[in-house]
Amino acid sequence: MTITFLSRNLEFPHPGQAGPDGLLAVGGDLSPQRLMEAYSRGIFPWYGPGSPILWWSPDPRLILFPDSLHIPRSLRRVLNSGKFTITADQAFKKVIECCAGVRRAGGHGTWLVPEMVSAYVRLHHMGMAHSVEAWHCGRLAGGIYGVTMGGIFFGESMFYRVPDASKTTLVYLCSILKKKGYLLMDCQQTTQHMLRFGAEEVSRTFFLTQLRKGINKPADRPGKWNLSLHSSELLIPQDGGMSA
Q1: Which of 154, 156, 177, 221 has the fewest other C-beta atoms within 10 Å?
Q2: How far apart, in Å, are the Cα atoms of 44 and each of 32, 40, 184, 233?
Q3: Cβ atoms 93, 121 nearer than 8 A
Q4: 61-64 and 200-202: which strand pairing?
């Protein structure tokens, strides 16, 4: 296995050169240009405190097609109750800071180190990173954020303070993606949580093919999502699938 050490040059090695665990390259920076170059090639950064920047392209890859979102019956009741007020791009920095405060399994620290937070906030100000927020009794209860390019949403992280808040933002996010014509949501790494919501593992080759189709799809232009959403905008079919 050969790991590439990045220089100031923005070029990345082909994702197929990644090791068995998906690690592809080390170093570089988190400039908007490098980040967007990475995402366009199916590569993302993921590392912890005290580590150099690590770049990954796992195989298999977890993706979610908006039409394939599975909504459990219990969550449908929450959605229909109007428990949460949902907004988009109204509290991006708060959402990512809350995600950074979530402890990883085993009690380890977050992977969202301060420089990562700053990098994604910069992308948000440039209109290339977005958040969906759930509010309960006037307070931020949960949220999800990610990066967009063409017709692909690269999901990064989510959090909740009130049960079902992050699940609710996921449903609304998929509604937004479907309405805007996005091809898929990249979930990056496999988790049981996302599998339960209809995400599926695909090969790196399949993902890269879909990525090439998606980033050239004019689903959305960079800019703030000026949306204030309500549960009445969701159509929740009886079979548990997703429509919008």
Answers
A1: 221
A2: 12, 10, 16, 32
A3: yes
A4: antiparallel
Task: Write down the pTM of the prediction.
Answer: 0.91
**Could you give the maximum distance between any two Cα atoms of the chain, in Å?**
53
Q: How many CB atoms lie within 10 A of CB 210?
A: 20
Parts of the chain belonging to CATH 3.30.70.3550: 4-59
Q: Which residues of 123-144 are buried (b: 16+ CB within 10 A; e: fewer)?
A: bbeeebbbbbbbbbeeebbbbb
Q: Is 8 exposed, middle or buried (0-12, 13-18, 19+ CB in 10 A)?
A: exposed
Chain segment 41-82, per-residue pLDDT in tens: 999 999 999 999 999 999 999 999 999 999 999 999 999 898
Question: Looking at the domain 62-233, which fold is it?
Answer: Aminopeptidase (3.40.630)
Q: Tens place of pLDDT for every residue, the chain, 244 residues?
A: 678 999 888 999 999 999 999 999 999 999 999 999 999 999 999 999 999 999 999 999 999 999 999 999 999 999 989 899 999 999 999 999 999 988 655 444 457 999 999 999 999 999 999 999 999 999 999 999 999 999 999 999 999 999 999 999 999 999 999 888 899 999 999 999 999 999 999 999 999 999 999 998 876 778 898 765 555 555 454 444 444 3
Cβ–Cβ < 8 Å for 234, 244: yes
∠ CA 88-212-61 to the nearest 5 degrees? Answer: 75
Distance CA 171, CA 44 (A): 24
What is the CATH code for 4-59?
3.30.70.3550
Intervals of CATH 3.40.630.70 along the chain: 62-233
